[in-house]
Specification:
By secondary structure, the chain is an alpha+beta fold. It contains four helices and 15 strands. The strands form five sheets. The protein has a four-stranded mixed β-sheet with strand order 5-4-7-8, with helices on both faces. It has a four-stranded antiparallel β-sheet with strand order 12-11-14-15, with helices on one face. The radius of gyration is 19 Å and the shape is globular.
């Protein structure tokens, strides 16, 4: 049976007065046209971040700016693929959200999850996994979508939209800031001689007022920066760059109402992994991939 998925070939750039809307029709454009369109999309992103940063800064100017350690976390997942020509602008947008941090009142924690259903046309995404395809499919059911698509951005498990649509990102992040979060902490991070990551995770309990009795605790190991030279497929000839590319995402336990979570976790790393390029992300999410209730991110150096 044929899989149902689509590559959304539309980019919406958010600016002060207008949207930029570009549509690729059924992949019929020549490679040169695709490359030109990609460059046009990417050129809009600096303006996008300036506008978003200005908007949130103005919104926060009347309030006391929070300290870096008190900013509530917001988890931003991007389902992407090297086999989809619409994904590079979204990949770049995600990287900018990570590096620029345009929301002064929150900490944006990004996670790039590469699906495997675009592994055709002679190119296999080296970061792809069926696990992320399955996770996206669960979101499809959760949000009542007819099919999965790339690039898809999911903010705090509460909203989804086209991954390069900065206007939708602004709305989702503005809403996510309002949601209280459960403190999640990582400590005792180390890598032993067998190339296994050791980390201790703690989380406050689900509040007694929570409608949920249980929530899942996840840990992700991600490459903070990754690049890939794509030789075939829709992105052939491009060198693509990513932020926080998931290598491992594991459900490590259950957080219960009225009971704090504390657990040591071991995760086997891929051979040749540069520990200085790793980011460890932990988050608490309602059952059935519901809303994200808390999150944190650390590098190996943060002990």
């Amino acid at each position: 049976m044929k899989s149902t998925f689509s590559c959304i070939c539309r980019f919406r750039g958010f600016g002060p007065t207008k949207f930029l809307d570009y549509t690729l029709r059924n992949g019929k454009h020549a490679k040169t046209e695709r490359r030109e369109s990609m460059m046009k999309k990417l050129s809009v992103l600096p303006l996008v971040l300036i506008v978003l940063t200005s908007a949130w800064s103005l919104g926060a100017s009347s309030e006391t700016a929070p300290s870096p350690n008190s900013r509530p976390p917001i988890l931003i997942e991007l389902f992407t693929s090297e086999g989809c020509s619409s994904c590079p602008p979204a990949d770049t947008f995600l990287e900018k959200l990570d590096s620029v941090q345009p929301v002064p009142t929150a900490e944006l924690i990004v996670l790039s999850e590469h699906v495997d259903y675009w592994n055709h046309d002679g190119w296999k995404d080296p970061f792809s996994s069926a696990f992320y395809s399955d996770r996206q499919n669960d979101y499809k059911s959760r949000f009542g979508l007819k099919s999965v698509y790339t690039p898809e951005m999911v903010v705090d498990g509460a909203s989804e939209f086209l991954g390069s649509d900065a206007h939708s990102a602004e709305r989702a992040l503005t809403q996510a800031i309002k949601s209280p979060k459960i403190p999640v902490t990582l400590s005792r991070l180390s890598i032993d001689a067998s190339n296994t990551l050791q980390v201790h995770i703690e989380s406050d309990a689900l509040p007694a007022s929570s409608r949920e009795k249980e929530a899942d605790v996840y840990v992700a190991v991600a490459l903070h920066h990754a690049e890939s030279d794509v030789l075939r497929g829709e992105n052939a000839g491009h060198r693509l760059a990513y932020a926080n590319v998931a290598q491992t995402l594991k459900d490590v336990g259950v957080l219960r109402r009225g009971q704090a979570f504390s657990q040591d976790v071991s995760l086997k790393l891929e051979p040749g992994t540069d520990k200085n390029n790793l980011r460890i992300i932990a988050f608490v999410q309602e059952k059935h991939q519901g809303k994200v209730l808390g999150a944190t991110i650390h590098s190996i150096e943060e002990k």
